[in-house]
Design a protein that fits this description.
Elements lengths: L16 H11 L1 H21 L14 H9 L3 H14 L2 H13 L18 H38 L4 E6 L2 E7 H20 L4 E2 L9 H6 L5 H11 L3 E2 L10 H29 L3 E3 L18 H23 L10 H6 L2 H20 L1 E3 L1 H9 L6 H10 L5 H9 L6 H9 L5 H8 L10 H4 L5
Parallel strand pairs: 3-4
Antiparallel strand pairs: 1-2, 5-6
Helix pairs in contact: 1-2, 1-6, 1-13, 2-3, 2-5, 2-6, 4-5, 6-7, 6-13, 7-10, 10-11, 11-13, 15-16
Length: 456
């Protein structure tokens, strides 16, 4: 059976392949080879740049473009050639090294220094930096732009619905009113915090040999400060340097990275569920899409499927991340391979999030506020005014204020007349009675509309 979107085992490359296509360049086997090839070539270029220290033949800078073109012109055929070599070596990084040596040997200029390809490197020197660059690109090119779109969409809704009153529900029961804009602001602020956090997470890399001590480097060149060269090399790639490691970079930053994404995802799950609930309450209507079907038997249905799809995929993504968060920082002694197969699923983990982000963006575009329903619910719940009334009564020293309102309202159907009769009976200044009588469930919204204006 030929592999395509219909025959793929995973929905990431099957049903949702259009949503995850953007990840293939980074996280596919082809992408991983290309990142590793780039790290090998950059390290080779670093060796060339210190050729005088290493007592090597100097290579003119104009010839470096030959090396750069190996990366720029890397094809699927090249990747297949590496896989072919791997069948013999049974080692993917060694196969990559042999492939690169073959490519570079086609230029006589580098013939005298071919053995300095992969010089002093353990496989993990190449792999850890490759993963770091993959995650850096995924963050900057995919995750942050999608988060930014979600946050911007929510912010747009905040100001669109800034003054639309909403009957709050605490414990699922009628409670002190708010506005739809303010309720969305709560999510916006939470999401924005993690957007800032993930931008500032350091992505680390190491280049220090088999157990992190430059053992082989120093036997070959004992007078060279390889620690300094390692720092220069790693930071030149736009990532931070980890100076102290075993054979592997310990992946603490990956755990931190996924913890941040997982928390953003958890906030988004909360958001999806609340929007789903508001749709169920008919606070939001969904715009019908021509020719779409909501049910195979109930023609009237418009299901909130985008928010359900997003919630489900966020849960899957978080499940993968949770394993990585706890697994990756642990390695037996100087090295074990249990992290290797887990790391190959970085793209899978992020893919479920990407599917979810695109689903929620699709769902938000279909929403329309239903102010009629929202006002109806508010007008049916005059009992929410028991809170401000008893609070004003307390101000004027009326005993058992809370208890009086509890007796009047708890478990009873309350309307405007009942509330106004009670206010009229109070021994408080007339101006306060007039002020209380101006309150309605629709205008008892506190500073909900005003504090939104302070958003960044």
């Amino acid at each position: 059976m030929k592999l395509n979107s219909l025959t793929a085992i995973s929905p990431i490359d099957g049903r949702y392949s259009k949503s995850t296509l953007v990840l293939r360049e980074i996280f596919s086997e082809f992408g991983f080879f290309k990142y590793r090839l780039n790290v090998e070539i950059q390290w080779f270029k670093k060796i060339i740049s210190i050729s005088e220290l290493l007592e090597l033949k100097k290579i003119d800078d104009k010839n470096i473009s030959f090396l750069n073109n190996i990366i720029n012109d890397f094809t699927e055929e090249d990747a297949s050639q590496i896989k072919k070599i791997e069948k013999t070596t049974q080692h993917d990084v060694k196969a990559l090294e042999y492939f690169l040596k073959d490519k570079i040997s086609k230029s006589e200029i580098f013939s005298s220094i071919l053995e300095f390809i992969h010089f002093g490197c353990t496989s993990e020197d190449i792999n850890n930096i490759s993963y770091a660059l993959m995650l850096k690109d995924a963050r900057n090119k995919i995750i942050l732009p999608l988060w930014s779109k979600i946050i911007a969409s929510v912010k747009n809704m905040i100001f669109k619905y800034q003054h639309v009153p909403l009957l709050s529900l605490t414990h699922g029961q009628p409670a002190t009113p708010s506005t739809m804009g303010k309720e969305l602001t709560n999510f916006y602020y939470r999401m924005q915090r993690y957007y800032k956090k993930i931008k500032n997470i350091e992505i680390l890399g190491k280049m220090n040999g088999t157990t992190g001590n430059y053992n082989a480097h120093l036997v070959a060149y004992p007078k060279i400060n390889w620690h300094k060269i390692s720092q220069e090399f790693v930071t030149s790639l736009g990532i931070s340097w980890n100076p102290y490691t075993t054979q592997i970079e310990p992946h603490d930053y990956i755990s931190e990275f996924f913890s941040c994404i997982s928390l953003f995802n958890t906030i988004l799950i909360n958001f999806n569920r609340d929007i789903w609930g508001y749709i169920s309450l008919n606070y939001f209507k969904q715009k019908p899409v021509e020719n779409e079907v909501g049910s195979s038997i109930m023609p009237h249905k418009i299901n909130p499927i985008d928010f359900e799809n997003s919630e489900g995929n966020l849960g899957l993504s978080n499940a993968f991340m949770n394993h990585m968060i706890h697994k990756l920082p642990i390695s037996r002694w100087q090295r074990d391979l249990s992290d290797s197969t887990v790391l190959r699923n970085l793209g899978v983990t992020i893919a479920y999030s990407v599917i979810a982000y695109k689903s929620v963006l699709s769902g938000l575009k279909k929403l329309e506020i239903n102010e009629v329903q929202m006002l109806k619910n508010l007008n049916e719940n005059w009992s929410v005014l028991s809170e401000p009334i008893q609070t004003v009564m307390r101000r004027y020293g009326i005993k058992n204020s809370y208890e009086q309102l509890k007796k009047l309202t708890r478990g009873k159907k309350i309307n405007k007349n009942i509330i106004h009769m009670f206010i009229a009976s109070l021994e408080i200044p007339e101006k306060e009675k007039k002020r209380l009588k101006k309150l309605t469930p629709c205008n008892y919204i506190g500073a909900a509309s005003q504090i939104i204006n302070e958003l960044e």
